[in-house]
Structure formats: C-alpha cells, structure tokens
Amino acid sequence: MRFLIAGFGSIGRRHLRNLRACGQNDLVLLRSNHSTLPTDEIGDIPVETEINKAMAHHPDGVIIANPTAFHLDVAIPAAKAGCSILMEKPITDQIEKIGELESALKAGNGKLLMGFQFRFHPGLIKIKELMQTGAIGRPLSFQACWSEYLPDWHPWEDYRKSYSARKDLGGGVALTLCHPFDYVRWLFGEVDFIWGYNGKISDLELSVDDVAEVGVKMENNLVGSIHLDYFRRFVRNDLEITGTQGVLHWNNSDACVTLQNAVYPESVIIPPAEPFERNQLFLEEMKHFIAVTKREVEPSCTLQDGLITEQLINAVKRSWNEKRIIDFKKEQNLG
C-alpha cells in the first residue's frame, strides 16, 4: 500500500518512522517546507507541495499531520478519492465545515480514524478493565489533568511560532490538548451537562487560550472535571476516579495504575506488562490504521468521536461567554 503524510513536523516524522517500523515503505510527503526539523531521513521519499499533485500518487491511506487550520484542505480531497484517513486531532478549527468532510467520506466510501492515541494507552486500558470488573464499585467522580509548559515541548523552535500558540493555525490549549475530552467519553460514556472557563491567564506570549477548567455531568450521573493548561513547569498528566468502593489513579508518564479499595486499602501499584515508552501509543495506533486501510477492521475512533470532542470544547467556550451550564445532550440533539 501507499501512504501519503501531510506535514513533516514532529508528529508527521513520528508517523513516518512508525509506518516504516510496520513495513510500509511506499510513502509520499505533502509539505510546506516550513518545518525546522532535519530532512536527512526523507531524501528517498517523493515530496509534493500541492494537494492535487500529492493525490496524483494515488495513496491508499492519508495521514493528516499538518497544522489544524489546514486539515480539511487535505482530508476532503483524500476522502473524495476513497482513501483511508488518519486524522490528527482536532479535526479543524472551523467546526461548521465538518459537514463537507462527512459528505466527502460518504461519496468516496473511505474510512477515517481519529488520532486519539490515548485510547491505546496501556494504563487507560487497564483502568477501563478494572472499572468493568467492579474493582472500585460504581464510579462516582473523576478528575483529569493535563498540565505542561508549552515552551518546553519543542526546544528546537520558538514556541510563539508553533501552531499550538497561534490562532491562525488552529492552536490553543483546549484544541491542542483535547485528548481528555475523548478518553473521558471512551471510559465513562456520554456527557449530559458541561460548564467551565477557557481563556488566557499566564504570562506566555500567545494569541490563544492557555487554560481550560471544565466540569461535566455524564449521562450515568458520574461527575468530573478536566483541567488543561500550557503553563505548569513540571508536567502533570493523570486521571483519578473515585467509586463507591475505592479509588483508581493513572499516571501517563509511567503508565502505572494505582488501586485502593476495601480489599487493598494500602494501595496496589499495577505497572504495564512491558516498560512503557510514549511511542508505543502511536505505534499501536498505526498498526490499527494499517488494518483500517486494508479494510480488515472498522476505525476504533471515528469522525463522529472527533466531532463530539470539538462540540464539547465549543460548549465550554459558550458556557464561559454566556455564564451558564450547557445542556449538552439537549443542544447536541437539536444541532
């Protein structure tokens, strides 16, 4: 099969390496040539700068890894051509245009996998398993946090010029760090009500939001919070769940899960089966995407999942602007 990668920033390079690790070497790149990364490892790969020329290579699968603002410029032509698509989150910063992508996918009969790789995290998979087996009884509440200092993300570039920091490229903390919005639904079900704050409060030189503080009530009456920010100097990325019989805690950095309940009051630390390395998430995601492209499996995370994530983010913004709790289930059905 042939794969087209749109974008050669850090995530595009990661996907390229993982495709090769999976034995896929028939590759094409679509890029603007604005990336600051070295190009020595792509010397043998055809490079195009225009989407029509890139699509002329007739790829089977297309990986959307360019800045958010340009996602649909690649995704819609690829969908019309019937390609399978791996779409990095978020879909777009222009949610009103997602309908065009839906129509293109229908016309081309292609498949789309959203790039929410935390669904492949061994720690979160273990959390889901433990909840399903009743390890903490009935889940009642959760707190999800992703807090990380933006200037430390890519030391080789000026953070102020990165897409994460620029409104014109579709940046901002709520869009860029939106994974918890997805894995919360994957773990706990659908959102009933949502409220919160989304804005800029730090001294970072940004034109976008650098913090989101969100509260939700799920359809099953579980309540929780999601905190995202760009300014914490020491990374925190974790999830804690409180149930009727105990507590579960997941830490992204080492993939360990901690269980404390009536049977194990002293806490039990459950490490992953193998030493955890971050690329494991992306590699498992890529294996799944290759299977999707071969039409062996259906996408485990769909365009609809990506759309709901963006609707949740927009609901948080409306909640703050309008100073009200959003009846998400009702407004989503109306929309």
Give a quick set of tags describing it:
335 residues; alpha/beta; Rossmann fold; Dihydrodipicolinate Reductase, domain 2; nine-stranded mixed sheet; six-stranded parallel sheet; 10 helices; 31% helix; globular
Describe the protein in words.
The protein is an alpha/beta fold and 335 residues long. 31% of the residues lie in helices and 24% in strands. It contains 10 helices and 15 strands. It has a 9-stranded mixed sheet. A 6-stranded parallel sheet has the order 3-2-1-4-5-6, sandwiched between helices. 42% of the residues are buried.
What is the share of helical residues? 25-40%
CATH architecture of the largest domain: 2-Layer Sandwich
> Could you state the CATH homologous superfamily of the largest domain?
Dihydrodipicolinate Reductase, domain 2
Protein structure class: alpha/beta
Largest sheet: 9 strands, mixed
Tally the structural domains.
2
Low-confidence stretches: none
CATH T-level topology of the largest domain: Dihydrodipicolinate Reductase, domain 2
In spatial order, strands of the major sheet run 14-13-12-11-7-10-9-8-15
State the helix count: 10
Mind sketching the topology for me?
Elements: E1 3-6, H1 10-21, E2 27-30, E3 47-48, H2 51-55, E4 61-64, H3 71-80, E5 84-88, H4 98-108, E6 112-115, H5 122-132, E7 139-147, H6 173-176, H7 179-188, E8 191-199, E9 211-218, E10 223-229, E11 236-243, E12 246-251, E13 257-261, E14 268-270, H8 279-293, H9 303-322, E15 326-327, H10 328-334
Parallel strand pairs: 1-2, 1-4, 2-3, 4-5, 5-6, 7-10
Antiparallel strand pairs: 7-11, 8-9, 8-15, 9-10, 11-12, 12-13, 13-14
Helix pairs in contact: 1-8, 3-4
